[in-house]
Amino acid sequence: MIEEYPSFSPLSLDQRTLLHARFQRLTEGMSELTFAGLYLFRETHHYRIARVGEDVLVVVGQDAEPFFILPFEFPSRDVLEFLFAHYGSMKAVMPSQAQRLAEMGLRVWEDRDNFDYLYARDKMATLAGRRLHRKKNLVNLFLRNNTCTAKPLLEEYAGDALQILDRWHEQQGSAGDYAAAREAIEKMEALQLCGGIFYVGAEPIAYTLGEELAQGRMFVVHFEKAVRRKQYTGVYQHVNRVFAAVLPEKYELINREQDLGDPGLRQAKESYRPVGFVKKYRAAKP
After folding, report:
1. Based on the domain organization, do 71 and 176 belong to the same domain?
2. Domain CATH code at residue 102
3. Model pTM?
4. Pairing state of beta strands 148-152 and 107-110?
5. What does the angle CA 95 – CA 17 – CA 21 come to, to the nearest 5 degrees?
6. Residue 156 belongs to what domain range?
7. In this structure, how many other beta carbons lie within 10 angstroms of the beta carbon of residue 131?
């Protein structure tokens, strides 16, 4: 159940039946605008949801400051005014929405730290060309040092994926997205997430997990974790390449989400030579 605005409901798994199909019809391919993308980070961003009539959904949340998201239609002007007055800014603004908001006299700006990185699936699958030569060398190094087996990440391997995640968490030294990643594994069937898991011998060492978006044109990788060990240098590059190679050809693009303004993460994502971005904007009163 989703309450009628101005009341708000917490995000719950039983809302997926109603919301998933609507999110799947979005064409822009924003990584956070899927049911799983919102649900798994509902506590991180304090998400709550309300409906305005039959067509409009409002998601509100808070990071350093409160914000709101309008993933589908705009509400009436008075409701929009209320949202800006009480939640400060609108986040995950699509380009089409940005133009409408600017025409209304609102301040609109690019949210570069939250741009999603897009990669051509076929190029990620082959790592062909001079610009990706170093990535291919790392894959070759990994394969020289290891005999690796890849399997679909089915529920029967969920325990192994959780083992990888726990080891990643210990080595990471910070929480990061651990809670969301754990729940994604535990509820991957209910959320219809899919991915792959990788073994060296009998040891689970890496996994990747995501879902389709943009009407089936893209696949977004929500989580990718690996055990860190000198012997496993190149494991992430190997996981990236193998998973891209087994994805159906209908996925023209792989969305590897945002860098959140982290310089190291930005450099890593740019080193794979993205073919484009899913641009996002924010909006607020002047």
Report:
1. no
2. 3.40.630.30
3. 0.95
4. unpaired
5. 35
6. 116-257
7. 12
